[in-house]
């Protein structure tokens, strides 16, 4: 039986945490609940005690606990810590390492995986300091679930609504289920080639065309593949990221350079994952700086080489996974790309929206293959990368 420690902080979404307890118990988990003093203003501890079948913990210094060190015992007991709802105040405390109540102290003492489900007003969520706190927590290894877009208690509508209990429950069950996962070296013996980041296509000696790709998804996938036991080569466009340890890094700038790097290495690898946002067109380069002359400028663009299609067309090709970033009609375009380029899998995601995509610390993917598909829900890119690697392992074994 899995041990799940649920932290409830003081937001109106605290009522949803009661349903989360019920769903987790239904999955066979043992649940213990920790509530902040603010949470007690929204919902009674008796509710959680009745649903979990265990006493609810609210005090840091519990004289009834052995040696008054109950927070250490709880931290050691848990297989996973989930904080839902996680208010803006709670996220700020956790990101800075404050430990002034039982829940924040448990976070510091926990060695198990930690998940948080943010819940707050849309203006609070979009605040720069909140996003900085989220980014800091992700760097600390915390997994973020949600939030979602929807109606809020204040009467506004926007991003900040806590994910539904079923969504949170499904993610926790996925994290705890007994199956072969990335951490169990499911890619041992495989050589994985990954392309990541944007390309820069020069216009003249001082200007270039590019896109908004940060490379974060590709770098996260490289890290997950290494954890899964693979020997990883990462072909990276210009990004501001540190490459994972033990990766073979090849830095490139243009689409042509990325094509040459990938094609020269593809046959030496068993898996190719093309996450890079490669320019579809490249301008004819001027050898001198283009001067401002007139009210308009005409650029002549020429089509770049299709890396995914070229790898997939190799006679002894690797297992080939493509990416599709779409602003509309996601499934149709992704499945067309899957078929036309003869890919084994394609992972599609929305861009140009309020949550996920370029520059974000979070993302969601809809993954397609012949006669199948699977949705990977919105979470931080590290967790999402691990889920994608698990799915790739599953599909390779099925093939």
Features:
399 residues; alpha/beta; Rossmann fold; 24% strand
Based on the structure given, which CATH architecture of the largest domain is correct?
A: 3-Layer(aba) Sandwich
The DSSP helix count reads 13
Based on secondary structure, the structural category is alpha/beta
Strand order of the largest sheet: 12-11-8-13-16-17-18-19
Mean pLDDT: 88
Query: CATH H-level name of the largest domain... which superfamily?
Result: CoaB-like
Instruction: Please provide the count of β strands.
Output: 19
Q: What's the level 1 CATH class of the largest domain?
A: Alpha Beta
How many discrete structural domains?
A: 2
Low-confidence stretches are 178-183
Approximately how much helix is present in the residues? 25-40%
Global geometry: globular
> How large is the radius of gyration?
24 Å
Largest sheet: 8 strands, mixed
Say what the CATH topology of the largest domain is.
Answer: Rossmann fold
Euclidean distance between termini CA atoms: 33 Å
Quote the beta fraction. Answer: 15-25%
For this structure, the quaternary state is single chain
């Amino acid at each position: 039986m899995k041990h799940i420690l649920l932290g409830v902080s003081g937001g109106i979404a605290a009522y949803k945490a009661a349903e989360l307890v019920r769903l987790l118990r239904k999955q066979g988990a043992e649940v213990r609940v920790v509530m902040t003093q603010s949470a007690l203003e929204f919902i009674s501890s008796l509710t959680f005690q009745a649903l979990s079948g265990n006493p609810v913990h609210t005090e840091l210094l519990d004289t009834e606990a052995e040696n008054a060190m109950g927070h250490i015992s709880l931290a050691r007991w848990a297989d996973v810590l989930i904080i839902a709802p996680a208010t803006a105040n709670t996220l700020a405390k956790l990101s800075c390492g404050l430990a002034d109540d039982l829940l924040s102290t448990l976070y510091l003492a926990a060695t198990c995986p930690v998940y948080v489900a943010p819940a707050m007003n849309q203006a609070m969520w979009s605040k720069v300091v909140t996003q900085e706190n989220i980014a800091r927590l992700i760097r600390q290894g915390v997994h973020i679930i949600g939030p979602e877009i929807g109606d809020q208690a204040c009467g506004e509508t926007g991003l900040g609504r806590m994910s539904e209990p079923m969504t949170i429950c499904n993610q926790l069950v996925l994290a705890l289920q007994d199956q072969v996962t990335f951490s169990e070296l499911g890619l041992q013996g495989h050589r994985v080639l990954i392309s990541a980041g944007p390309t820069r296509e020069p216009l003249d000696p001082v200007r270039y065309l590019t896109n908004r790709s940060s490379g974060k998804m590709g770098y996260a996938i490289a890290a997950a593949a290494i954890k899964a036991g693979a020997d990883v080569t990462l072909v990276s466009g210009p990004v501001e990221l540190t490459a994972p340890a033990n990766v073979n890094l090849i830095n490139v700038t243009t689409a042509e350079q990325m094509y040459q790097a990938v094609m020269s290495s593809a046959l030496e690898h068993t898996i190719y994952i093309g996450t890079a946002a490669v320019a579809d067109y490249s301008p004819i380069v001027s050898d001198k700086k283009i001067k401002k002359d007139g009210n308009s400028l005409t650029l002549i663009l020429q089509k770049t080489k299709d890396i995914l299609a070229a790898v997939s067309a190799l006679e002894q090709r690797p297992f080939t996974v493509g990416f599709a970033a779409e602003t509309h009609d996601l499934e149709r375009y992704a499945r067309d790309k899957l078929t036309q380029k003869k890919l084994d899998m394609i992972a599609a995601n929305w861009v140009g929206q309020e949550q996920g995509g370029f520059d974000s610390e979070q993302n969601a993917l809809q993954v397609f293959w012949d006669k199948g598909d699977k949705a990977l829900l919105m979470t931080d890119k590290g967790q999402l990368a691990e889920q994608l690697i698990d799915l790739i392992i599953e599909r390779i074994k099925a093939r």
